[in-house]
Amino acid sequence: MRAAGASTAPDGPKRTRLALIGFGTVGQGFAQILAERGDALAARHGLEVVVTAVSDFNRGSVYRAAGFDPRELLGAADALETLEADAKGWDALTTISESGADAVAELSFTDLKTGEPALTHVREALSRGMDVITTNKGPIALAFAELRKLAAEHGAGIGVEGTVMSGTPTLAVGAGMLAGAGVTRIQGILNGTTNYILTRMEAGLDFDTALAEAQREGYAEADPSGDVDGIDAAGKVVILANLVMDAPITMADVERRGIRDVSAADVAAAAEAGERWKLIGSVERRADGGVSASVGPVRLPLAHPLAGVGGAVNACTFTTDLLGDVTIQGPGAGRLATGYALVEDLIALRGRAPQGSGGR
Known about the structure:
Blueprint: E1 14-21, H1 25-45, E2 47-56, E3 60-68, H2 70-75, E4 87-88, H3 92-98, E5 103-106, H4 118-127, E6 131-134, H5 137-153, E7 158-159, H6 162-165, H7 170-177, E8 183-189, H8 192-202, H9 207-216, H10 225-228, H11 231-244, E9 254-256, H12 264-272, E10 275-285, E11 291-301, E12 313-320, E13 324-331, H13 335-350
Helix pairs in contact: 1-13, 3-4, 4-5, 5-11, 8-9
């Protein structure tokens, strides 16, 4: 969801002072994009981003009124407080309240049980009239209706593109471009880790071996339960239902099953039948106007648009009244891919459409 951000005149870029809460993989990917493409963003989209504060629980916290060069931040990513700064040691809430930023990027770790600490961070920023951009699923899956209302009450914007398929513009397509097409069902491969595991099982590996390989390759965490038990995908289903289909479901409404019970024999049997196992997140409009939501392993015929999506890739098929099936595919994770989601949201909230584009 993107609420209205500050407007910008067509004759010059709008300067946006930004505070980053979290400076891990996503924050550093975003800083790299600013370092490499900041001038182009200002010229084409009227978006001049100045990072004035960064607060990371493990890496330290710095504030400088004049802003930091993103290369400077990247060079001190593991020890931010070695940088010259007007203030150091602020916690996240102090950074939000004292940095004087126009917008906050909430990039702390995701908790799909409580949404914290990110939920408190987002509430604080919105209540101060600051735009929020986030790739953090927790607050959006658990409290989107509340946050949307809070943003509207305080004239703030909230951008959440990166919460579903990283920088692949799934919400922009589903909730924006397809808003008038009548979306009746959404099916997606929403977790790259499980898709990688199932793809490797097709190559002959059993589940445990494929999982161990995914962990070595960096696709799966040491505790893979959020991925292989379908929790991560369920959070994304909730977000899709809320934003694209305007269905206020919760995590408890999603029927969920992971892939631990999919065996090598199951995968082989599907291949013999011309089918392929995928962990599918789904939300569908029922005849009574409600929705049904689920996450679980499904045998798809090879002709299905999601069946050919292999490896650590995400994809989403929107079934619509007017256009039939529309499928979007792209990276669902990664430093630059997720960092780019923040750029998308900033352009939507605080930039301008390039001349000749016709706007959006």
